[in-house]
Every structure is written in C-alpha cells, then in structure tokens.
Amino acid sequence: GWSPIFVTVDPSGRFAYVSNQDDGTISMYTINSSTGTLTPMTPATVSGGGGPFGVTVDPSGKFAYVPVPYGNIVLQFTIDSVTGVLTPNTPSEVAAGNNPAWVAIDPSSKSAYVTNRQDNTVSMFSIHPGTGNLTPNSPATVATGTQPWPIVVEPSGKFVYVGNENDTSVSIYTV
C-alpha cells in the first residue's frame, strides 16, 4: 500500500499485517516459516478507514484492532485462523478519544487500551471473548501526559506504560 507505517506479526508467526496510512488500507500477508518471505493474501488488503496508524493483534491471535486517528475510532477485526484474512466485526468500529494512535492488549486478551493524542487520555475497553468487540469501561478514560503515543501492557498484565511525546515522560498505571 501507499505509505506503510506499521508492521505487525500475529502471535503464531504465520501472518503479517501492514497499515498503509495514505491509502487507508491494511495489507495482509502469509509468512513463509523457512524464508520469511511475505505472500499477499486473497484479498491482499482490507479497508483501514481514513489513515490507519497501526495494527494490534490480541495475544490469542483471534482479533485485530486498528486505531484511525482522523475518524476517532478503532476498527475491530476477526482473524481467520486458517487463512489469516481480517474480517470486520459487527459493529466494525468503536469510538475512541480524539486522535487515537496506539492500541495495547493485556496478556489475557480481556482488556484493550488506546492512546488518544489530542485529548491526552487513554481509552479503556473490555474485550468480548467470543466476538472481540470492544466495550468502553467505566470510567472510559484516564489522563496521560502530553501527546501520548506508544502504550504497552507489561507481561504480567499488572501495569500499563504510556510514552508521552511532548513532555518526555512515561505515564505508569496499575491495572
């Protein structure tokens, strides 16, 4: 695609996904386990909304999430376990904060966290185990530093870390 800005490999190492910001698509590939060669899937792309920033695959490898900053949404997909093809969920999107940029999933695949760059927050969601759909928590957001960007849940699932681009800090949260 045009302007690929993010590459993700699923937990099984069989599939790769590339968000193409300027053409609003997500390229989908199978990975040759011997050579690492990427082969486009059929179809080769799926709509990524208006400028997808990245693709996050949950630890179970069943679902994928794509922040779309210019639509203030997160796209929700189910991953075909055989082909790796992304299929939009119903509904295909969930509202996030202003300019969502990064998604992190906890190790149990029960919670999702999304950084919102323009309102300096993290949106917090529960993940439905059967559908992968995101439901906002209550409260739905927590404050961060200035312009949060990357977010990660540490391996035990106890803590979440957010890098804040414009104030050189890292926000730390207890789950």
Strand content: over 45%
Could you report the average pLDDT, rounded to the nearest whole number?
A: 96
Give the topology string: H per helix, E per strand: EEEEEEEEEEEEEEE
Distance between the termini: 37 Å
Radius of gyration: 15 Å
How many DSSP-defined strands? 15
Find the structural class using helix and strand composition: mainly beta
**What is the approximate shape?**
globular
Quick one: biggest sheet? Answer: 4 strands, antiparallel
Strands side by side in the biggest sheet: 1-2-3-4
User: Which ranges are low-confidence, i.e. pLDDT below 50, for 5 or more consecutive residues?
Assistant: none
Task: Enumerate how many helices there are, as a single number.
Answer: 0
Helical content (DSSP H or I, runs of 4+): under 10%
